[in-house]
Structures are given as structure tokens and as C-alpha cells.
Design goal:
Length: 316
């Protein structure tokens, strides 16, 4: 059990496996293929039509150079055969330092963040509440006023974890149109009250929403609601709580929260769905892994975040 727990919580890199489209100038991005080992500055001096060294340094400092879809500011970065260098016509974003949002990946098309708990993905009314969207919008527009971001999907206010935004309306639409088929893994971790009846199981039910309370209800028989499928396995348990890995086969509103309540194990801190305790002063649900087909490269990309330390401290 200890080895399983150690492997489960081991931090992973946030670098996905990406390849970009063929070289050329498209949509404000010049794409250049590397044919031999060379340093980045020398490569750009040779390929950028007489551009001066200071001009290239300016592009680097403004985060307009990407190597294999990773922004770089290192002029002497060693390149290898097969690498792809992208020169953007738009200034890249400065680094973001915010307690509620951490950028874990950025390329020419996407920004992937780790959202903290107790903040909305995007506002639901006309108020001025701080949201992950508003934080990112303000951030990208520090680099250029015409920079935009677009919401692709959402996490509940109470849920932390991996969240994807698009950099253009076209990329947003491409992702949303095929989200249910192109997303290959959605894995969460949750701390629940008690211990589930089985070490692992698949929960299948039909979900409906109460229009007045906005609470989701689960039915074990088809009542005309949306079918929802959730798989879980127990990672660790003690006398009071269990740490679960939860994988979604469907992505309905509040799905994990209502499904875990339905087996008698509400998520710790989730009073809306039956929790009696709140040991870490939050709903103990975290979107840990998201894997999907990149809308441009058509390659599978995978983003991971570590299990929140507060979750783990309950089992020491």
C-alpha cells in the first residue's frame, strides 16, 4: 500500500508531447524546422532574413519565440535536428504570479492552468467577482491590449486543478465541438468521508437538476435525466476518511460530488452533497489529470498536477 501511495502522489512534469504543423508562415506565426544541431540565436540569424541580433533578443525578451511549443527567452538554447521553432508576431505573456492561478503550460494556441479552490472559472452574472478567467485576461493583456483568452470548460468554484483556456475563438470552438470525444482522460482525486463499499467500482446513474435549489439528483434508473458514469478506486483509508482516484467517463455538472454521495461517501467539506465534516476547510476535490487531442497538432497532450498536500496530510 505504501508503494502504491508513493507512486500515486509522485509529482510529474507538465510538459506534454507536442509536435507542430509544417514550417511556414500561418496566422501570425512563422514556423521553422531545424535540420542540424545549432544554437537558437545562430539559427534565427540564418533563417530570419537578415534580422539583427538585437531584434532577435527583443523577440526573446517579449516571449515571442517558441521551441517545440514551449516559450523560451534563452538566446543560446541548443537546438537539435527535428526541433520546431515558432516566431510569433504577437508579444507573449509575462510570467504570472497569483495565489489562485498557476500557468502549467502555454503554447501558441492554449493556456493550461492549475486553478485553486474557492474561485469561479468564469463569472456567472454581471458582478465584478475575481475569476480564473479575469485573472488570465488581465495577465495576457499586460503584454498586448489585443490579446484574448476564451473559456473551453469549467471547474466548480470549490474544485481545484487543471483548467484549459484557448487563445482564439477558433481554437475554443474546435475544442468545445469535440470535447466529449477528444478528451481521453479526466482524473480527479477526492477525500471522502468513510470508506466506499468496494475498493474500486463504476457508478452509473441518471442526473437531473432541481431548478429551485440548483442541486443535482441521482437516479439508479433512467428517469429522463443525463446518464453519468464515474469510476473510482481507493488509494488510502483511515478511520475517518478515504483518498480516492476518480475517473470520469462523462462530464456532467456536479457529477463526482453527487455520485460519491450516492454510495454513502460524500466528499469532505461538501455540505451541499451531504458532508458532515470539513477537515481542510474546503471541498476536497481536485482535477489532477487532463488528457486530450490538441486541436492543431492532433497529438494527445497530457497535463498533471500533484495531489494537494492538505489531502495527503489527513493520512499521515
Amino acid at each position: 500500500m505504501k508503494d502504491k501511495m508513493k507512486n500515486f502522489i509522485k509529482k510529474t512534469t507538465n510538459k506534454p508531447n507536442l509536435k507542430s504543423p509544417p514550417a511556414g508562415d500561418l496566422g501570425g506565426f512563422t514556423r521553422l524546422k531545424v535540420n542540424e544541431p545549432i544554437e537558437l540565436m545562430d539559427f534565427l540569424l540564418a533563417k530570419m532574413g537578415g534580422m539583427k541580433r538585437n531584434s532577435i533578443k527583443s523577440l526573446l525578451s517579449h516571449r515571442q519565440i517558441l521551441v517545440n511549443d514551449q516559450i523560451t527567452t534563452q538566446y543560446n538554447l541548443p537546438l537539435k535536428t527535428g526541433d520546431l521553432v515558432v516566431v510569433s508576431s504577437v508579444r507573449g505573456n509575462t510570467e504570472l504570479f497569483h495565489p489562485k492561478v498557476r500557468i502549467i503550460f502555454e503554447d501558441s494556441y492554449l493556456i493550461v492552468i492549475e486553478k485553486q479552490e474557492n474561485i469561479l472559472t468564469v463569472k456567472t452574472d454581471h458582478g465584478n467577482e475575481l475569476t480564473a478567467f479575469s485573472i488570465l485576461k488581465k495577465h495576457v493583456q499586460k503584454s498586448a491590449k489585443n490579446n484574448r483568452i476564451y473559456t473551453v470548460h469549467r471547474l466548480d468554484r470549490e474544485t481545484s486543478g487543471v483548467l484549459v483556456f484557448a487563445k482564439s475563438r477558433e481554437i475554443q470552438q474546435a475544442l468545445q465541438e469535440k470535447w466529449h470525444t477528444d478528451v481521453k482522460k479526466r482524473i480527479y482525486v477526492a477525500v471522502v468521508e468513510g470508506k466506499p463499499p468496494k475498493g474500486s467500482d463504476k457508478i452509473v446513474s441518471w442526473l437531473t437538476e432541481n431548478e429551485k435549489s440548483l442541486k443535482i439528483h441521482s437516479s439508479s434508473v433512467d428517469n429522463g435525466g443525463q446518464q453519468a458514469v464515474t469510476c473510482y478506486r481507493v488509494i488510502k483509508s483511515n478511520d475517518d476518511y478515504s483518498l480516492l482516484e476518480v475517473e470520469l467517463e462523462t462530464g456532467r455538472k456536479n457529477q463526482i460530488r453527487v455520485h460519491l454521495q450516492s454510495i454513502g461517501c460524500p466528499i469532505a467539506g461538501d455540505k451541499k452533497y451531504g458532508a458532515k465534516t470539513s477537515p481542510i476547510a474546503r471541498v476536497a476535490l481536485h482535477a489532477r489529470i487532463l488528457e486530450f487531442y490538441h486541436p492543431v497538432t492532433k497529438k494527445i497532450v497530457r497535463f498533471e498536477t500533484p495531489v494537494p498536500r492538505k489531502f495527503l496530510h489527513l493520512f499521515h
